């Protein structure tokens, strides 16, 4: 049986990104107490994902598993040119982007990455959002990596409109991607998705399955189930399609080979209509749930 081919979309720099990726956060995240211990289980899970057809691999230094991701890439037997590898910098205080990037490349055992992201804008004093000047300075450092060819595309993660506005004022290269938590219970009020379209920045969604996992028991459950029955798929398939059918790249993860293969086998056989996407969106606005970075936002902040 042949490995499914995941469709791609073109980024603003001309490079292409697979619209479905395997994330090494969440299930494969290593706690600080175990970050120095090499985890064969993470390697095995990632090799399984690669062999199942997930050639878009999303990592980060903060996940503590870049060594395992690099080992999985080697063990998979899939040519480097067939993989799309992402990692992210946490912008540690007193450390240059060059130093962080070089360390990540060494751990990954790679000569380049396909996408390098600033993990969040919260690298300012006392863990607050960085100032306009700090955002611009760090972005300039990331741009140097693209100019060197060692990061094919560059972008950000968890940035809001004001953070993007700041770096776009001085950017030589626009961010190709902004990776954000995105699901029906966190749709980012204020037109954030429309803003990205206007600026030509691709949105990547992490935690797109939140409404069927962490926040199950909410208003979209009934709609998911209705559409799953209509199309002969799972509620998870519907949740991912809701993301994809809005032109957003989806990142997901699982240690189950059956579930991983199920998504690849089921997602390309159907699309949601605009009315169905809108129905999920409307029901989703009845509930607010943010799974990550809650300490950076006031309760009820839907941005």
Automatic annotation (TrEMBL):
The keyword NADP applies. It comes from the Eukaryota. PROSITE patterns: ALDOKETO_REDUCTASE_2. GO terms for molecular function: oxidoreductase activity, acting on NAD(P)H as acceptor; oxidoreductase activity, acting on the CH-OH group of donors, NAD or NADP as acceptor. InterPro entries: AKR (IPR020471), AKR3C2/3 (IPR044494), Aldo/ket_reductase_CS (IPR018170), NAD(P)_OxRdtase_dom_sf (IPR036812), NADP_OxRdtase_dom (IPR023210). The active site is at 63 (proton donor). Substrate binds at residue 119. CDD domains: AKR_AKR3C2-3 (cd19120). Belongs to the aldo/keto reductase family. This is Alpha-keto ester reductase. It comes from Cladorrhinum samala.
